[in-house]
Specification:
Helices cover 76% and strands 0% of the residues. The mean pLDDT is 85. The chain starts with a helix and ends in a 22-residue tail after the last helix. The protein has 449 residues and is an all-alpha fold.
C-alpha cells in the first residue's frame, strides 16, 4: 500500500502544471506560442529516454531504487516553485520525467514478484487508480490553494505544497517497500514462508532480484504480442497523458472561471478512479482482459467523439466523465495484460520496458493536441484522441484473436506432457511437479485472453 500514496504524489507532480498554468504561471513565465506544450512534451521525452531504469528494480534492491528516485523527483518538483523563466522550468520538467521513469513501471514490475497472474491485474488497478484519485484531489487542492491570498504567487505555492510531501515519502519508501515477499517486514514468519512457497509455485525460485537474462530480453523484442501491447499502450497514452494537464484549460474554454474549472475537474476523475478498480477486478476474476479492454477503450472513444462534435456545455461535461473513465481504466488493464502474458521475470520486465518506450511516445503526441489556435472546443485534438481510442478497441480484439490461436498451439504442443504428468501424479500423489514454476513458460502456461 506504500506505493499508492507515492504514485498519487507522482501524478500530482507531473500533472499539476495544468492547474499552475491557469493560476498565473502562463503570464509570469511568458508562456507564449507553444511554450506550454513544450513543458508537457519535454517530460515525456526524458521519460522515454530513461525507461531502461525500470530494470534496476531487478538488479538492485527495490527499496533502495524506490527511495532514491522518490527523493530526487520530489526535490525537482519542489524546485519548480522557484523558477524565474521558461528555460528553467523546461530543465526541471526534463529531470522530473527522468526520475519518474524509474518509479511507476518499476512498481508494476515489482507487483509481479508478489502476485499470481489472476491477482496482479487488480493490484495494477489499485496502483493506477492513484492517478485519477490524485487528479480528484488536485482539482480540489488547487482550488483551495489558488483561491487564497498569499504573498507567494498562487502557482508557486501550488508547486511547493504538492512537491514537499514527495520528499518526505522517500524515507517511508526506503523502510517500507519490500525487496521480495519473503523479506517483507509487514509479514510474520509464517506469512513469509507462505509467500516464498507462492514464489516457487510461480517461477520455480524464491529469489527474484539479482540479474537479467540477455537472451530473454532479445526474445521479448522479437515477440509480436509484446509489440501489440506496446502499440495498444501508445494509443491509450495519447489521451491518458493529455487529459489531466489540459482538463482545467478545456473547462475554462467551456465558459467556467479558472477557479470553478479547478473544482469541476474533480468529479470526472473520481468516476475514473472507481472505473479503474472495477474493470481490473472483473478482468482478474474472468481472465478475459481483452474483452474488458475493448469495452473501456470504446467508452473513452465515445466520450472524446462527443467532445469533438457537440457544443452544448452540459453534454460536453458529461462526455468528460466517459473519456476519463474509459482512458484511466484502459491503462492498468494494458499493464496487467503485459505481465499476464510474458513467461519469466526478465521477459515481464522487458515487456514493460518495451510498452513504455513505445507507449510513452503517445504522450509526446498527446501533449501537442490542444494548441491555443484550436480554442475553444479543440475539435482536432478531441477527434484524434477519439480515433486512437477506437484503434485501441480494434487492437484489443486483434490481439485477443492472436492469443486464442497461440493457446490452441500450446494445447497441441503440451497435450502429451500434461497427460504423462497426470499419470505420474496418480502413481505418486505426494509429488506435484506441475505446481512449480506454473507461470513461466511450460506445460501449464496459457495466455490470458
Amino acid at each position: 500500500m506504500t506505493s499508492l500514496p507515492i504514485h498519487m504524489l507522482a501524478f500530482l507532480d507531473r500533472s499539476n502544471i495544468g492547474n499552475a498554468e491557469i493560476a498565473g504561471m502562463e503570464k509570469a513565465l511568458n508562456l507564449v506560442g507553444d511554450r506550454y506544450e513544450w513543458l508537457l512534451t519535454i517530460f515525456y521525452i526524458s521519460y522515454i529516454v530513461f525507461e531502461f531504469s525500470l530494470l534496476f528494480w531487478k538488479i538492485l534492491p527495490p527499496h533502495l531504487v524506490c527511495a532514491t528516485v522518490v527523493f530526487l523527483w520530489g526535490l525537482v518538483a519542489t524546485l519548480q516553485s522557484a523558477v524565474q523563466n521558461w528555460q528553467g522550468i523546461m530543465a526541471l520538467r526534463f529531470f522530473l520525467g527522468a526520475f519518474e521513469a524509474a518509479y511507476g513501471p518499476g512498481v508494476i514490475y515489482l507487483f509481479s514478484f508478489f502476485y499470481l497472474r489472476h491477482e496482479v491485474g487488480f493490484r495494477c488497478g489499485i496502483f493506477a487508480s492513484a492517478a485519477p484519485l490524485a487528479s480528484t484531489f488536485a482539482g480540489a487542492l488547487a482550488y483551495g490553494i489558488t483561491n487564497g491570498d498569499s504573498k507567494l504567487a498562487n502557482w508557486r505555492l501550488l508547486f511547493l505544497v504538492e512537491g514537499l510531501p514527495t520528499i518526505l515519502m522517500a524515507p517511508v519508501a526506503y523502510f517500507f517497500v519490500p525487496d521480495s515477499p519473503d523479506k517483507a517486514k509487514f509479514l510474520n514468519r509464517q506469512e513469509q514462508e507462505f509467500a516464498r512457497a507462492r514464489a516457487i509455485r510461480q517461477t520455480g525460485k524464491s529469489d527474484r532480484v539479482g540479474g537479467i537474462d540477455a537472451k530473454q530480453l532479445a526474445q521479448t523484442l522479437l515477440d509480436v504480442k509484446a509489440w501489440c501491447n506496446a502499440l495498444l499502450y501508445f494509443s491509450a497514452n495519447v489521451s491518458y497523458a493529455s487529459l489531466p494537464v489540459y482538463l482545467p484549460l478545456i473547462l475554462t474554454q467551456m465558459g467556467y472561471s479558472s477557479i470553478d474549472a479547478q473544482g469541476l475537474s474533480a468529479p470526472p476523475y473520481f468516476v475514473a478512479f472507481l472505473s479503474a478498480l472495477i474493470t481490473t477486478f472483473i478482468a482478474d476474476r474472468t481472465q478475459q482482459r481483452g474483452l474488458v479492454l475493448m469495452i473501456t477503450s470504446l467508452v473513452g472513444a465515445v466520450g472524446y467523439l462527443v467532445l469533438a462534435t457537440v457544443e452544448t456545455v452540459g453534454v460536453r461535461y458529461f462526455a468528460i466523465f466517459l473519456a476519463a473513465a474509459g482512458v484511466f481504466s484502459t491503462i492498468p488493464n494494458i499493464l496487467a495484460w503485459t505481465l499476464n502474458n510474458q513467461g519469466s521475470d526478465t521477459r515481464r520486465g522487458a515487456g514493460l520496458v518495451l510498452i513504455n518506450v513505445v507507449g510513452q511516445c503517445g504522450p509526446v503526441l498527446g501533449t501537442r493536441l490542444y494548441p491555443n489556435a484550436e480554442r475553444p472546443r479543440y475539435v482536432k485534438g478531441m477527434s484524434i484522441c477519439a480515433a486512437f481510442m477506437f484503434s485501441a478497441t480494434i487492437m484489443s480484439l486483434a490481439l485477443r484473436i492472436l492469443l486464442i490461436w497461440e493457446n490452441k498451439r500450446l494445447e497441441e504442443k503440451y497435450a502429451g506432457a500434461i497427460n504423462a504428468v497426470k499419470v505420474e501424479q496418480e502413481a505418486t500423489p505426494n509429488q506435484n511437479e506441475m505446481d512449480v514454476g506454473v507461470e513461466d513458460y511450460g506445460p501449464k502456461f496459457r495466455y490470458v485472453l
